[in-house]
Amino acid sequence: MANRLINENSPYLLQHANNPVDWYPWCEEAFRRAKDENKPIFLSIGYSSCHWCHVMEKEVFEDEDIAKFLNENFISIKVDREERPDIDKYYQEAYQILNQRAGGWPLSIFMTPDKKPFFAGTYIPPNPKYNMIGFKQLIERIIKFWKKNPKDLINQANQIANYLQTSNNPKKAIKFDESIIDRFIKAAVSIYDKTNGGFSFKPKFPQTSIINTLLKIYQISKNKEALNLATNTLKNIAKGGMRDLVDGGFCRYSVDEKWLVPHFEKMAYDNALIANTFLNAYFATKDSFYKEVAFETIDFMIEKMQENYLFYSASDADSEGMEGKYFVYSYDEVKEKLKKDGFKNIDEILKNISISKNGNFEEKNIVRVESDFKDKKEVLKSLKELREQRDYPFIDKKIITSWNAMMIATLFKVSRVKEDYLNFAKKSLEILLKKVYINDNLYHVTMIDKEPKIKAYLEDYAYLINALLEGYKTTLNFEYLILSTKLTNDALSSFYQDGKWYFSKGEFKTEADFSDATYPSSAAMMVKNMLTLASLVDEKYKRFSFYTLEFYSEKIYKFLPYTALFVEDMIRFLKDDIIIKSKAKNLLDCTKKIDFISPFICLKEEEIDEIMLCNSNSCFASVKDCKEVIERLNG
User: Model-level pTM greater than 0.90?
Assistant: First the structure.
């Protein structure tokens, strides 16, 4: 018999609708019942493409005995962290306080009926293993304490809640100057994997913010060390494993140091951000390799991960009940397929694509190419045909505003290289706005065929404004600029206070991340947006940018290079924008060239015949055409 989740829209919640656990969605009815019956709450937070969420569901939430105990003694609540990132953020912070380390998913919280946590875990096995307590034993102990010593648990919960409410504001502002460039490079070097690239060992995330800032430092200073750190990382990531060489696109992260064995889920935000980073590498180096990887990634998203110009949130790591089954190959099936397709030198080809009898992942093979070889394109086509006989992983079809905006910004940017993408970018933005921006209210998430209900968070504003500004830079559509200005004013009104930014101010008041975690800081993205608006609309936005940089400056310097987007903002603030002013026709002639010159160029339409080159204080040159613009700025 289905539980209450059967009435929800979230694919993740619907995945749990037939569990024997008597799940509630996050709702007042659940908390009212917990208070009336004096029961603790078990809160489980995850998302549909999370492998360990699936494992815990199968092992724990489908266990009849565990479900019976939970149903008798707890009120159980399920939350999709992609629908409610504010709830997730709040309880991830609780996990960090209780465990003194970062959390993850699934997130397992035990709390009082008034939402105050007293115990936090992530994946918990049904019985003791991996040096972990079993879920059965844990819930039995919690109920024993709850019935015998409830005051102790409540006191602990109150202490945690008080700590979560305590503002962790920086103690002092630090004066920033251009020495931050060298400091950032030095900090990046200190965590750099010289052998495989990347800025950690294992597990390894792409950390696109660090790479982007290094590439932009190279563009403005020609610092070869910054360039080498970035490009060596991208070349290693591109070899295959975390990058899917067969279908295209990137998985979320690699569990090993070589970028070979991924967690196989593919997220919309990762693919938007990684494609953008490869584009930045192309602009910095003019090496078409990076451009082609960006095209391939975007094409994957358009082919597999969108409907009616709106991008889905994620595809699953698992298929047919096994992690990675869709993605990996046996030695025999590949060898047979290559023979059937008429390839010669098959043993050499197998070596080139890292296919062996022993395998490189649980006796199967993940495709990886260390260097190009003849017939590579045709070989990968044969491997794709093998995949087409398999079940494609589950796709979560939620439409998340911020993640769609990331993809749209990348589409506009790539259209300045290949105009074929421009119509898709414009159409995608148009349809997203119709879907999530209703009566001057911005919403966070919806389904293709549903109306949105959850109001937007700071990340939705920040990334949508960025997409609009990329759209303006590409097309000079003044409506994009007007809406970006309005949304910025709305964000300042709703989430900003004396230099500090909040992620949410609704049911849970949570601060914006200052570091670039899952994706770049929303607060730093707002500074990036406001610096653009300061150049194009009103200098007041530069003051808000400065107040924000000043407020976070201590943390930025303390946590280099994990605050990379803020560092980029600081460098841009110090270096100033180049503002190119002229008629639209003159400016549009330049749009395909300016990304190669500097990352900090704005185009401003004005009714003047000549082309003026300016900064925020004055104009320093007048030229006739785009060719002279390039010559002057490169000179």
Answer: yes
